[in-house]
Every structure is written in structure tokens, then in C-alpha cells.
Amino acid sequence: MADTANYINDRFQTFMKGLGDRYEPYVREHLYKVYMVLGSTAAATTMGALLQMRDFLDLGVLAAVATLVLVLGLHFYKDDGKNYYTRLSMLYAFGFCSGQTLGPLLGYICSINPAIILSALTGTFVTFISLSLAALLAEQGKYLYLGGMLVSVINTMALLSLFNMVFKSYFVQMTQLYVGVFVMAAFIVYDTQNIVEKCRNGNRDVVQHALDLFFDVLSMFRRLLIILTQKLKTFMV
Questions:
Q1: Which structural domain, as residue segments, surrounds residue 180?
Q2: In a domain, 222, yes or no
Q3: Could you tell me which of 124, 146, 126 has the C-alpha nearest to residue 220?
């Protein structure tokens, strides 16, 4: 048992040393800040969802409007070195409102089987950690070519969604959900490497970089929730 623990510890130390040798100190510091902000934004999302589900605070349509306004504000209100805490507050507010919009879906799933939420959360967390590490340990810039292709896929999926509003095809809906999970997984890899490259080029906008990853994680989590719920409902029938 002790030998196993020592082996795991040695492998962990080797892994951390590998990351340390691969990335400059300022890049490691930037990634640390990005992941800390990402984690706290996820906490704000959790709080927003819980308050909505418990009927303590339900912003309704206002939450959806606020998410749009806040994300546009973060896009146009660029980092100037002096507005960090203002933009950070906007990001946390965006996370909170995203939780409010997610609350009704979570409440519906809880009425069916609360274990679905835990399964989707675990799947999202494990996937994010695994793909982030894969991107950080891969050859630098290896997956940056994915950016253009992923945007094209997203645009195609958006177009199909518009058509499906008319035709209401269950097959198209489920295909988009499954493809969307893989697209978000690819975005995690792409965004992770892109953040590193931007940092090296002087762009150290922690808030924007955390927002990019937050989009990936939230989109994957939402899709996994729907997929798992649909599978359970099919099984019950």
C-alpha cells in the first residue's frame, strides 16, 4: 500500500515538474488565475440555480435578458488594466443569471431523477479536467487549427436549429445534442491552448479567458443533462 502511494506521489511530482518545465512562470500564474475565476463563476452559477429551484429568487425572463446584456458588455468593455474588478463582477453576475436560467431545467430533472444531475456534473468535470490536461501536455499550439472548423460546425448547428423549429425532427434534435457535446469538448482543448498562446503574446485578460472556458463547460453540462434525461425517459417508456 505504501509502495502504491509512493508511486502515485512520484508520478504526480513528475507530472507537475513536466508542466513547470513546459510553461513559463507568468503563464502558469495566468492559468492559475483563470481557473480560480472559472471555479468562482461556477459557484455563482450554482447559487443562482439553487435560489431559483428553492423559490427564494426567480428572475425569470429578466435573467435571460441579463445574460445577453452582460456577455455583450464583457465583449465590448475591453480590459484596460484598470477595470478588472468591474469586469469580474460582470462575469459573476453572468454566471449567477446563467444559473437562474438553468434552474427550471434542473428542477424538472429533479422531479424525474436527481441522480441525472450528479451524473452530468461528474461527466462534465472529468471531461474538462482530462481535456484541459491533454491540451496543456500536448505540443504547443497543436490544436489551434480547430478554431475555424469548430466555428463552422457551430454555425451549421445554429442553422439546423432554425430549420428544426419548423420541422421539429427528434432525430435532428438528438443529433445536435450529441454533436454539441463533442464540439464543446473540442472547444475546451482549443480554448486552453489559445489562452496560453494569447498570454504569451501579451493578452492576459483573465476575465475573458475564464468566460471562454465557462461557455464550454456550461454548454457541455446543459447538453449532458438533456441527453441523460431523454435516455432515462426512453428507458422508462
A1: 1-11+25-236
A2: yes
A3: 124
2-16, 62-76, 103-117: the lowest-pLDDT one: 2-16
Check if the beta carbon of residue 225 is closer than 8 Å to that of residue 117: yes
CB burial class (10 A; 0-12, 13-18, 19+) of residue 237?
A: exposed
pTM for this structure?
0.87
Grid cell for residue 93? 453576475
Domain-located, residue 18: no
Nearest to 74 by CA among 213, 205, 195: 205
The structural domain count of the chain equals: 1
In the numeric block, which cell numbers belong to residue 148? 475555424
pLDDT-based confidence at 235, cuts 50/70/90? low
Is residue 20 situated within a structural domain? no
Q: Which residues make Cβ contacts (< 8 Å) with residue 191, sequence separation at least 6?
A: 209, 212, 213, 216
Closest among 135, 123, 118, 117 to 34, alpha carbons compared: 135
Residue 17 belongs to a domain: no
